[in-house]
Design brief:
homodimer, ThiamineP_synth_TenI (chains A, B), 8 strands, Thiamine-phosphate synthase (chains A, B), 41% helix, TIM Barrel, TMP_synthase (chains A, B), transferase (chains A, B), alpha/beta, EC 2.5.1.3 (chains A, B), eight-stranded parallel beta barrel, binds nickel (II) ion
């Protein structure tokens, strides 16, 4: 599983999930998460179906946040779980695909490791995207998680074109961004810039 | 599938889901829905697991509201979907069990009928349990739905021991209650009273 630049869609800025996904797919992003906290399941289904169509067109991986049933319904490649979602050890029994989980410490990462396919670790830096975000773990905290697990680690939280190289140097296999792209004046250009840096560290 | 008295658990009153479920199971209710709008998925999983254990003990049917993934995770017998949840035609593909759907009109009931196993119709009367509840359909509206579909109809909304006979006379196969039991001083006694009336109309 290759992750690289991992774009998480958001409807909290001025564009739709579909517009953002299409912009990043066009410039080469191949790992996308659908994350939405305000729509009804019926609405989410409709958006996720569109994202599935787009990601298939570009042979990209589609991950659905939280809702395993939605992931099953649209045949997503994976689900991403938070610590408050369905337990990952249970999800592995009902979902036959990629399972990722958010972690904030070495302890959480180690607990999740044997059940899941990738670990997201963060927030690395302070971020405004997530309300009630936890204290940043910093590059040091990220490095500790990377060195204590064997599964691929994805860094998340406050990552942008100015700090992404520092993040990549910790040994992560993926870098997740939301606002650096979704809140950019030109999402396509921002994705392209970030992708160029990521590819210098994580090329196949 | 026998429905009869269909109890929907609620944590909005002074008892837990588990306490309520155990009370109604003890007196003979055999169709229970877990409905919860405020807990995290992780918390819901923990409660639903307890309800699954209880309902298995009593050979009762367990239905999970909204979340098909939660139903899969705890091996519930069925899911209940609202008009804003995942589309029932899709759910039938990912969930191999009972699928019920909330309807408010003959039109909604007929659209759902061929995909699902039972139709809930309501609110029959005015109710305080559900915020933003729709206009009541009344006994007349209920009768119209019952006579226009072949699948079993479950009446819901404001049903109590004083009006339940009128509801049963419309030809429904089930009667769903929340507050008539959950908000009772003695849930067990209230469930028993309702069950006795239901059994006069819907005995096997
Ligand atoms: Ni409804």
């Amino acid at each position: 599983m290759k992750i690289g630049l991992y774009f998480i869609t958001s409807s909290e800025f001025s564009r739709t999930h579909e517009e953002l996904a299409e912009a990043v797919l066009r410039v080469g992003v191949r790992f996308i998460q659908f994350r939405e906290k305000n729509m009804s399941a019926r609405q989410m289904f409709s958006v996720a179906k569109n994202l599935r169509k787009l990601t298939w067109e570009y042979s990209a991986t589609l991950i659905v946040n939280d809702r395993v049933d939605l992931a099953l319904a649209v045949e997503a490649d994976g689900v991403h779980l938070g610590q408050d979602d369905l337990p990952f050890e249970v999800v592995k029994d009902i979902f036959d695909g990629i399972v990722g989980v958010s972690t904030h410490s070495v302890d959480e990462a180690k607990k999740a490791e044997r059940y899941i396919d990738y670990i997201s670790a963060g927030p690395v830096f302070r971020t405004t995207t997530k309300k009630n975000a936890k204290e940043p773990i910093g590059l040091e905290g990220l490095r500790r998680i990377v060195s204590s697990v064997k599964k691929p680690v994805v860094a998340i939280g406050g990552i942008n074109k100015f700090n992404i190289e520092d993040v990549l140097k910790t040994g992560v296999k993926g870098v997740a961004v939301i606002s650096a792209i979704a809140n950019s004046q030109n999402p396509e250009k921002s994705a392209k810039e970030l992708l160029e840096i990521v590819k210098r560290y994580l090329d196949d």
